[in-house]
Write a structure and sequence with these properties.
The protein is of the alpha+beta class. The chain is built from 10 helices and 20 strands. It has 2 domains: 125 residues, Creatinase/prolidase N-terminal domain (Creatine Amidinohydrolase, Chain A, domain 1), CATH 3.40.350; 227 residues, Creatine Amidinohydrolase.
């Protein structure tokens, strides 16, 4: 069964007569289209794909027979096409993605087709996208492989005197050189006290001897993302750093070893959070344990203290506990993990993370 057919079943369960997609990533997931301008209307009877003249040939190649392909013109926009095709004739309930449809678009479509009851739906593809198929898993594994190869090639540059931004630029270059489409998000390089910033993007700060350095990075491969974090130390680490690092590593290992299909996101989160709490650092771990990986670097499902949703077989998630202490620094360790009925597989295990392995000697 195709993804479009599976979505039609979901749509029927929501008692909808149709669904209007305006978010490129969702349309890519359903059709394979990789262009930047498109819209799509799905109903049990029809699949109508719309784009402009720039992507006419591309749509024929990528969308093919998955949907009717219609091209907008300077005189005829998406809404004109929908009207001309009688898409909403005798239709009562049509859904739209409330997370990716702005108010202006909603007003425009609801005014144009005012006999339709427009139903907001949050995350319409969540159930489909949280489980990756064989091809998707291959792409994520390849994205992880590229990211790991790239950081290993860049690590010799991690020495006192290098600027955070310079390291990040070199890492990005190697991700591209090694076959990545692009970095999966702005690379985080946070050294010294800046390591207390969970999303501290690379800055003009010079990295010094005696500092921790948190590097959060990833690659896109064939439109699928990886996401990895390691914290290194330049020189001889203090006992405080060693204690905190080993606490975070224990928390991560406990979560990975204890997680399994059928657990709630909050239950997996609790495995790591309890370790950090018992060590006395609970107040310094303020984010969720992890998130799904797929077409987006923050995809479905979510591992957090508020997630009651069951984690299904076939989900790929990050496991990334951290401790962040203002004016001191921080530690985060992140791996990408596949959950299956047969157990778990760490997709990023080729990047070392034991305490002795993350210390970079300095003269």
């Amino acid at each position: 069964m195709s993804r479009l057919d599976k979505f039609v079943d979901i749509m029927r369960n929501m008692r909808l007569d149709g669904f209007l997609f305006m978010f490129n990533m969702d349309i890519h997931y359903l059709t394979g289209f990789t262009g930047s301008a498109c819209s799509m209307c799905v109903s049990p009877e029809r699949r109508i794909f719309m784009t402009d003249f720039r992507y006419e040939s591309q749509a024929k190649l990528e969308v093919g027979e998955k949907a009717e392909i219609h091209i907008t013109t300077l005189e005829k926009n998406y809404y004109d096409l929908l009207d001309e095709l009688n898409v909403f004739q005798n239709v009562k309930y049509v859904g739209f993605d409330s997370n990716h449809t702005n108010y202006a678009i909603y007003k425009r479509v609801s005014n144009r087709f005012n006999k339709v009851n427009w139903i907001p739906v949050l995350k319409p593809l969540e159930k489909l996208r949280e489980v990756v198929d064989t091809e998707e898993l291959h792409n994520i594994e390849k994205a992880a492989e590229i990211a790991i190869k790239s950081i290993k090639e860049t690590l010799p540059m991690l020495k006192p005197g290098i600027v955070e931004k310079d390291f990040a630029v070199e890492l990005e270059y190697r991700i591209m050189k090694n076959g990545g489409q692009e970095k999966s998000f702005p690379i985080i390089v946070a050294s010294g006290h800046r390591a207390a910033l969970p999303h501290g993007r690379a800055s003009d700060k010079v990295i010094k001897k005696g500092e921790m350095v948190t590097i959060d990075f990833g690659a896109y491969y064939n439109y699928y993302a990886s996401d990895i974090t390691r914290t290194f130390f330049l020189g001889e680490p203090s006992s405080k750093f060693e204690t905190i690092y080993k606490t975070v590593l224990k928390a991560q290992k406990t979560a990975i070893e204890g997680m399994k299909v059928g657990m709630k996101g909050m239950e997996i989160d609790a495995l790591a959070r309890e370790v950090i709490k018992d060590a006395g650092y609970e107040e310094f771990f303020g984010h969720g344990l992890g998130h799904g990986l797929g077409l987006m670097v923050h995809d479905y499902p979510i591992l957090s203290s508020r997630t009651e949703r069951i984690i299904p077989s076939g989900a790929v998630v990050t496991v990334e506990p951290g401790i962040y202490i203002p004016d001191w620094g921080g530690v985060r360790i992140e791996d990408d993990v596949l959950l299956t009925d047969d157990g778990i597989k760490v997709l990023t295990q080729d990047l070392p993370k034991e305490f002795e392995e993350i210390i970079i000697p300095c003269n």
